[in-house]
Amino acid sequence: MVAGSRSAIAFAGDLVRAGSFDELARRLYAGIDDLFGPVCVGFDLLDPDTREVRRTSARGVSDYFMARYDRFARRTDPVLNFAIDNRAVTYNLSMMSSAEWRSLVIYQEVFSLHRMTSLVYAPVVADDRVVATLNLGREDGADGFDAAHLEQARDLADLLGAVLGSQRRADTLARRADQYAAAIDLCDEAMVVTDLREGERHVNPSAAAILARRSPAEPSLDEEMALHHARAAGSVERSSALVKRSVTLEDSDALVTFLQAGKGGERLPEWLLQRLTPREAEVAALVARGYRDGEIARHLVLSTHTVKGYLREIYQKLEVRSRVELTRLAADKGR
Questions:
Q1: What is the mean pLDDT of each run of 10 residues along the chain (335 residues)?
Q2: What is the secondary structure of 40-62 as a DSSP string?
Q3: Residue 173 to residues 166, 178, 179, 190: CA-CA distances in angstroms?
Q4: Quick one: which of 36, 79, 226, 294 has the fewest CB in 10 Å?
Q5: Cβ–Cβ under 8 Å, residues 121 and 135
Q6: Residue 76: exposed, middle, or buried by beta-carbon count in 10 A (0-12, 13-18, 19+)?
Q7: How do residues 9-45 score in pLDDT, each as one tens digit?
């Protein structure tokens, strides 16, 4: 872009703030004339492996032109293919004369619809792969593209590549975060993840069920966490009845806390007890309090295999599929 140009700097700022491809395209079209003057422009998102178009958009050409180009010209366009193959801004009139361009079938079948005789393709590279193309065109009779325009197209393509790369990485991180949150929610172990930097907290269903059963008179989660850390530091002797363990993730501001329901706990609701044998009710109560299979086995002096057998029977009778669902059911006093 032109150094020191205020419009170019403002345009770049608008592009950087785009949160999606569609928004990036809108901002691109809104400001590109400040760089090149009146120009037809296209912005195509590509599959970097196959070159197939994932998203296509344009300004200044008809929908019929776009359909014809995609069907008859895209695969054979020598200017486009040279630009992608060489990762270089390519100007059709640097490759051939105007007469030669007009003699091509793709001009006669497609570009003649807008009498487009000057054409520039700028490959957009992100993470070392061509992920898009910036396409500029001018009609016959308009000024062509000079060396300064080609340099601006190169700079603009570089900026678009940086924005698309950032968008892709942000999308990947958001997707992974959603996947990790879903996995934590599926975990039978009661877990609380605290973001110490943002002041946010994620409580999975197992932990939520334990916290929901606690009396308002009991210490809060944060009070129990403080007690646990004080016990670990040796400043107090009493252990937390709620916090089983707490771990700060390495090189992170995240604190992962595992909860236990305590060894006392509340009695299971009567409607649930009526569906289970006394031994099954004991096992269900311990599951609801956060015990693992091995802990239940030791507590009831049973084998782990026997505990698993009781759990299968409990799940079948109560029509649940996991410890999380069983814990939620045990907390339901309203049936």
A1: 61 93 95 92 95 93 95 94 97 96 96 96 96 96 93 96 95 91 86 91 88 79 90 79 86 87 63 87 83 82 91 92 85 62
A2: EEEEEEE-TTT--EEEEEEESS-
A3: 11, 9, 10, 25
A4: 294
A5: yes
A6: exposed
A7: 889 999 999 999 999 999 999 999 988 999 999 999 9
Residues 74-131 pLDDT 10s:
999 999 999 999 999 999 999 999 999 999 999 999 999 999 999 999 999 999 999 9
Amino acid at the residue 319: E
Tokens of 72: 């008859």
Helices 293-300, 304-318: inter-axial angle, 10-degree rounding = 110
3-state SS assignment for residue 13 = helix
Which H or E run includes 179?
helix 147-186
Q: Are 322 and 206 in contact (CB under 8 A)?
A: no
Query: What is the model's pTM?
Result: 0.67
Domain ranges of the chain: 6-174, 187-259, 270-330
Q: What is the CATH number of domain 270-330?
A: 1.10.10.10
Q: What DSSP letter does each residue of 191-244 carry, written as one string?
A: EEEEETTTTEEEE-HHHHHHHHTS-TTSPPHHHHHHHHHHHHHTS--PPPSSEE
